[in-house]
Amino acid sequence: MNFNQLWVLAPFSIVILIIVYLEIMLIYIFINPEGKEIIQVVLHHLLLLAVIFSFYKTSTTKPGTPKQTDTENDSLTNQRKTCKFCYNTKPIRCHHCRQCNKCILRMDHHCPWVNNCIGQDNYKYFFCLVFYATLTSVVYFTIYFNKILKNPPTGSVDTYFIIFAATLSFTLMIVLFLFLAFHTKLISNNQTTLEYFEKQREHYDKDLVSNFNEFLGPGCWLIPI
Ligand SMILES: [Zn+2]
Ligand SMILES: [Zn+2]
């Protein structure tokens, strides 16, 4: 394994370390859960399973690359440029990813956290990942914050570990919420991240439900299958 391959694993390793730390603190708090706490722990772990499954689907599903048939029925084919990297005719909304060295259909962005491009075929899993990760971070923060309220810091070492877990989950919650809000806004405008930054506004915009169906599949928008 060379240095570049190790570097690719760095974001994934950071995520695993954060989850392991937050889980250890959760086990420490709920070493003997009772009543409502059991329901809280079960719900939390169902959400965490949804995060892990969405992560797996996002990183292992190919984002979609153009086939010849994608441009045959494209009335704008004659106006499209040929990709200067892989020499294929680009269908509408297709972009070349330099990290993957491929043209990606309706490319959104290349995501180092899942080590994959986000495009037409895996955007739904990516959105589910951000959605469930946001909910999970809210639950983590609520649990640690309640623990601090019930047992105000006494100066013992364990309280500082819990305060750190609360701070970490609060930061994650804010960052993920902003990211979720940004992507919800993009879907509602039928826009990709690339199109947003290239200022291609309202190019493909339809009604709200059609926009969500186009990006997340018809119905079952938040089920990552
Ligand atoms: Zn290309
Ligand atoms: Zn890529």
UniProtKB/TrEMBL annotation:
Coiled coil ranges = none
Residue intervals passing through the bilayer: 6-31, 38-56, 123-145, 157-182
Give a Pfam family name: DHHC
Per its record, the protein catalyses: L-cysteinyl-[protein] + hexadecanoyl-CoA = S-hexadecanoyl-L-cysteinyl-[protein] + CoA
In this chain the Palmitoyltransferase DHHC domain maps to 77-199
Taken from the UniProt entry, a GO cellular component term is: membrane
Q: Which UniProt keywords apply?
A: Acyltransferase, Membrane, Transferase, Transmembrane, Transmembrane helix
| Record EC number | 2.3.1.225
Under Gene Ontology molecular function, one entry of this record is: protein-cysteine S-palmitoyltransferase activity
Reproduce the free-text note on domains from the UniProt record: The DHHC domain is required for palmitoyltransferase activity.
Q: Which family does it belong to?
A: Belongs to the DHHC palmitoyltransferase family.
Name of the protein in its database record: Palmitoyltransferase
